[in-house]
Amino acid sequence: MKFRTIKGTKDILPDEIAGWQHVESVVRRVMHDFNYREIRTPAFEQTGLFARSIGELTDIVSKEMYTFLDRSEESLTLRPEGTAATLRAYIQNNLGEQSPLTKVYYIGPMFRQERPQAGRLRQFHQFGAEALGASSPLLDVETMVLPLEIYKQLGIDRFALKINSVGCEKCRPAYKQLLQTELRKVFSQLSPDSQARVEQNPLRVLDSKNEKDRELTNNMPLMSEHFCEKCALHFASVRSLLEALSIAYEVDGRLVRGLDYYTKTAFEITSTALGSQDALAGGGRYDLLIEELGGKSTPGVGFAAGIERLLMVLSKLGKSKQTRATPILYFIGLDEPARIWAFLKANELRRQDICAEVDYLGRSVKSQMREANRQQAHYVIVVGEQELKTKAAKLKNMRTGEETSISLDDIKIPS
Ligand code: AMP
């Protein structure tokens, strides 16, 4: 029996790794420049954490979580996103008491049992950041700038930023009722998914991707027409800060996003280089969530961005990093004592940070040479009885073909 990857999961093979490492290093650099520190939380948590934060009625919680009972009958779930676990760690470790503002980022795998298609996987990777402890719109904008800066540094300049505000606990309830009244009038014509949301989360109906739903809700009232003064001011500040930074954006009054925890700002970044799954990143403010999870009332804002989709965009734009690591020095051993000597010497050089490689397969000289070429070694040294006796050999530059005499006791690689 041959085992295979689970549907919706992928191996990331050595030939692809340069692209991943490049993205990760740009993420880390930009996060560092913005003074966000990395946090790593476990891949699985108590199921209740996600149900409570993301929302029982969301697609993620109701249909997509990998939930299982462990051997002690506790319900656990592979994390479907990064915010809930980050906040759990923030509360559990009293990070809020160490400093009034906590800025953290993460990179890692997430798990959702969605229908796999291009750009939609069951194990996928996200990077994201959370700024916890302040309600300033400066941070709403900072969490938009972070992914945009990362995309820019990776060479992507075409993306669309859509923003909205979903109101707060003061203005949303009245608007929710108003919207519900309107939705009930067309209830029977709505898609089953939207029907299920009318009572619990009517705002999500506006965000439905179903054409008929969109048509029916086209002229329905929007949250922006019913903001309280604080929400109106907050949204206006976000907009003017984006303008001050010359960041193009579009206000999308229907943008709600698939997680229930947002208050005020919600945003999404899409790429025209992607097909139907065009969302690259999403985020927003969640001022009630930390308290909801048992912490002190603390405002927060954050974003999450998909790495696989980002790599798809980079490859469509011809900006993928494909450089592979190649050995700097390849030893070719003519006989067994020379091979052993090369093995020991390679270990010594590796300690000096020189990527040195030897033959482990007892190959002929010809096929060792072929292997050095296949691996695109920069230099080759051939060693045999004669070289070991005189401690002298030739260092061959594989790019130019040039050979220089060297001492085996003092191997120096030209820089
Ligand atoms: P979300 O946590 O749903 O707001 O998603 C944030 C970002 O993660 C999206 O914009 C996508 O780029 C990425 N993403 C979400 N779900 C998947 C998935 N199933 N497969 C691949 N990428 C995903």
The helical percent reads 25-40%
What does the radius of gyration come to?
A: 28 Å
Q: Can you list the ligands bound to this structure?
A: adenosine monophosphate
The CATH H-level homologous superfamily of the largest domain: Bira Bifunctional Protein, Domain 2
The number of distinct β-strands equals 16
CATH architectural name of the largest domain: 2-Layer Sandwich
Shape: elongated
Assign the CATH class of the largest domain.
Alpha Beta
* Terminal Cα span: 49 Å
On the 0-100 scale, what is the average pLDDT?
A: 94
Enumerate how many helices there are, as a single number.
16
How many separate domains make up the residues? 2
Q: Give the biggest sheet.
A: 8 strands, mixed
Estimated share of beta-strand residues? 15-25%
Walk me through the structure.
Helix 1 runs antiparallel to helix 6 (137-153) and helix 6 runs parallel beside helix 11 (229-244). This protein has two domains: 17-171 and 227-316, Bira Bifunctional Protein, Domain 2 (BirA Bifunctional Protein, domain 2, 2-Layer Sandwich); 329-407, Anticodon-binding domain (Rossmann fold). By secondary structure, it is of the alpha+beta class. The mean pLDDT is 94. The protein has helices spanning 17-33, 47-54, 59-64, 83-92, 95-98, 137-153, 172-185, 192-198, 203-206, 211-216, 229-244, 289-292, 307-316, 336-350, 365-374, 385-390, and strands spanning 37-38, 44-46, 67-69, 75-78, 102-111, 123-132, 160-165, 250-251, 265-270, 279-285, 300-306, 329-333, 356-357, 379-383, 392-397, 403-407. Strand 15 (392-397) and strand 16 form a beta hairpin. The relative contact order is 0.12. The radius of gyration is 28 Å and the shape is elongated. The chain has an eight-stranded mixed sheet. A five-stranded mixed sheet has the order 13-12-14-15-16, sandwiched between helices. Adenosine monophosphate (AMP) binds next to strand 6, strand 10, strand 11 and helix 13.
